[in-house]
What we know:
The structure is a homodimer.
Chain A: E1 6-12, H1 20-33, E2 37-43, H2 47-51, E3 55-57, H3 63-67, H4 92-103, E4 106-113, H5 115-130, E5 136-141, H6 157-175, E6 182-188, H7 195-198, H8 200-205, E7 212-214, H9 222-236, E8 238-244, H10 256-259, H11 277-289, E9 293-297, H12 301-304, H13 311-329, E10 335-341, E11 349-355, H14 356-359, H15 380-386, E12 398-399, E13 402-403
Parallel strand pairs in A: 1-2, 1-4, 4-5, 5-10, 6-8, 6-9, 7-8
Antiparallel strand pairs in A: 2-3, 10-11, 12-13
Helix pairs in contact in A: 1-13
Amino acid sequence: MSTLKGACIIGQSGGPTSVINASAFGAIEAALQSDAITKVYGAANGIVGVLDDRLYDMDAEDMDELRRLMYTPSSALGSCRYKLKDPAADDTDYKRILEVFKKYDVRYFFYNGGNDSMDTCNKISKFMQSSGYECRIMGIPKTIDNDLFGTDHCPGYGSAAKYIATSCMEVCLDARVYDIGMITILEIMGRHAGWLAAAAALASHKGAGPDLVYLPEVDFDMDDFLACVERVYKKNGKCIVAVSEGIHDKDGKFIAEYGHHDQSSKDSFGHSQLGGLAAVLAARVKKHTGAKVRGIEFSLLQRAASHCASQTDIDESYMAGRAAVENAVKGVTDKMVGFERASGASYKCEVKLLELTSVANAEKKVPREWINEEGNGLNSQFIDYALPLIQGQTKQESEDGLPRFAKLKKIPV
Amino acid sequence: MSTLKGACIIGQSGGPTSVINASAFGAIEAALQSDAITKVYGAANGIVGVLDDRLYDMDAEDMDELRRLMYTPSSALGSCRYKLKDPAADDTDYKRILEVFKKYDVRYFFYNGGNDSMDTCNKISKFMQSSGYECRIMGIPKTIDNDLFGTDHCPGYGSAAKYIATSCMEVCLDARVYDIGMITILEIMGRHAGWLAAAAALASHKGAGPDLVYLPEVDFDMDDFLACVERVYKKNGKCIVAVSEGIHDKDGKFIAEYGHHDQSSKDSFGHSQLGGLAAVLAARVKKHTGAKVRGIEFSLLQRAASHCASQTDIDESYMAGRAAVENAVKGVTDKMVGFERASGASYKCEVKLLELTSVANAEKKVPREWINEEGNGLNSQFIDYALPLIQGQTKQESEDGLPRFAKLKKIPV
C-alpha cells in the first residue's frame, strides 16, 4: 500500500453526544502522531466549515487540553445539520469541497456523525473519485440513538443509556414516595428506534424502573396503553411509564402528534420535530384514570450528561476515532468504523470496518424478539446486550466541584 | 439533665431530596447507638404513618443496607404533604398522635422536612407539653430550596445546586454547537426563593453557563426580559437563560400563569402548582425575536439526582441527623438543627440549634445585594457562598454500572 502524504480534516456533524469529542480526540491524536499526515485541521461546524473555508489549526492546540476532550460533551469543533444535494442534480457544494481540499492539500477526511453524516461521507468520496482527486474518507460513528446499521452498537449510546437508566432509577424512587396515587410518564429520545427508551428497562432490571416501556418498534395502541396503565395503577397505586418520543400507531402517525396538529415543523432532513409526547399522554391518562399524572422529558441531558457517561463508551469512542485514522493511513477508505463483540463469555469490543454505502441512511431497530409479547417491556436479551455498554464511571476531571471541560484555542487557519 | 428513656420515631416529610436519607441514616444510627433510646421506629409516610399507626422496626434492618441510605435519594420511609390543623380549632390529630406515642412509649420524635414540617414539629411539641406528656421533639431540615430561616444553608441544597450547575454546563455546551441562532430557556425549581436558579450562575462562573439568570427575589418585567434576551442573541447568535419557576411580576403574578389561566391547581398547603414557565417564556421570546427557541425543565431530577450529589452535602446531612438525636438525648427539645460557617478562610460547617418557632413558616431569600443591579445575574458574593457547598463527588456505590441503593426490609410493627 502506497503512503499518501497530506493534510487531514476532522469534522463533527449532527446532534452531539457526551462522548463525540472522545472520538475526535482519538482521531486528532492519531493524526498528530502519523508521519503521513502533514497537518491536522478541524472543520468549524462540520462540512459547513469546509464549504466556508473555516478551519482550525489542531497542531496549535495544547495536548493537555486536547486530552480533556475525552470528557467534554457536545461537539467541540461545532456541528451542523447541512445535507449535501444529490451531485447529479447540483454539484456546486462538491466542487467547493474539492477546491478547499486542494487549497490545503487535504488527503484525509474524517467525519464524525450519524447515518446522515455517513451519507455525506459517501457522496464526497464518490465525487473525489470521479474527479480523480486522491483522498481517503472515513466515517466515525456517533449517535445516542444507536441506530446505525452493521455495528453492534454506536459510540454515544452507552453513555446516554447509563444516564437514562440512572435517572429512571432516581425518578422512580421519587415518584413512589408519597402516600397518594401517582402516574409518571417519562419521555425519552429516539425517533425511529427505541434503543434509548429501552435503556429504562435497565433500571427496572435493578428493581427501580418503569412498569411499562414503549418503543417505536411496536405499533402503539392508545386503548391498550390506557388499559395497561390503569391495571398497574389500580394494583400498586403508582405507575411509571417510559415512552420513546417516536412511538406511533399502526398507521404510522406519531402519538406526539395526537395532541397538536402542527406538522409544519420539520428539520432540514425532512424529519418531523417531535416532543411534547409526555404532555399528550399525560392528558389522556389523566382523563382515563382520574389520577394525578406527571410528565417528564429527559430532554437534552440525554445526549449531554457527560458527568454520568460510561467509561466503556468513552474508551470505545476514543478507539473508534483512532481506528479511523490508523486505517486510512494504511490505505483504507470509504469505510465507517464499527464495533463487534468478540466471542467469549466476557464482553470485549473490537473494531470492524463497514462499507459507507451499507451504513448510509439505513436504520437498525431493537429486535422484536428482545421486546416482550405485550410490547410494553424488554426481556433479558436486551439486558444482556446493554449492560456491558454502561459499565465504568467516567474519569472526568473536576475543578471547584464542577466538570473541567477542554478549553481549545480554535485558532482559525 | 435527667435521662429520658423511651422509644423514638423518625419521619420524613415534604418533597424528597437526594440526601434526605443521609439525615435519616444519621438519626437512625445515633438512635440505635443510644442507651436512652430503647427502640427505633420509622414512620411510614411521615406524620400520616404516626396517625395511621404504620411504623417500621428500624432495629430489624441490616446495618450495611441502612448505611447505603447515605447514597439513596428520595425518602426511604415514604413522605407526605399532610398539614396538621390548628389544635385550637381541631385537636383530633394531636390526640391520636399522643395515643400512638403512649402505645409505643415514644419519648423522642425526629422529623425530617422543610418549613412546613418544622411547623408540624412545633405544633406537636406544644400539644405534648400541654398534655403533660414528656417527649423531646427535634426538626432535621431538608430542602433543595435552601429557604429555611436562621441556617446558613439547608441539607439538600448543595446536591441540587451541583446537579443544576453541572447540567447547565453540559446543556450550554450543547446549545452552542450549531451554526444557527438558538435561544435556550432553562426552567429551574424554586417557588419563592431563587437559590436553585442562582446555582446556574456557578456554571457561568466556570465559563459555560447561562447568559441571564432570573430569580423571584427581583420583580420580573417581561419587556425588560425580552430586550435583554434580544441584546445577547443579536450579539452572540445564542442566548441561554435560567429562570426560577417562581418568578413573578411587580403585582405578584407568577409569569408561569401568563400563558394559561388555570389557577385551580393548588397543593394541600394552598401553594399554586407551578410549571410550564419555560413554555410560556419560549413562546414570548420566539414571537419577539423570531429565533429558534427551546425550553428545558430540569424537573424532578433536581431533587433526585443522587448520582451527582455533593459529598459535602451528604456528610452534612448525615451530621444533622446525628446531631438531632445526640442533642435530644442530652435534653434538648423544640429545636431544628441548623448550620453555621465557622469563621476562618477555609469552609467549615458547624451545627447550630434553632428554635422551631423561629423557623416554622419563615422563608429565607437570596439577598438582593448578591444579585446584580440589572436583576439578571449573580455576583461573586453568591459564588463564594455556594461553591463550598457543592464540593466532593458522591461516594455512591455502583453495581452493574448503576447506583446501588439501600434495600430496606421495612418490617411493620
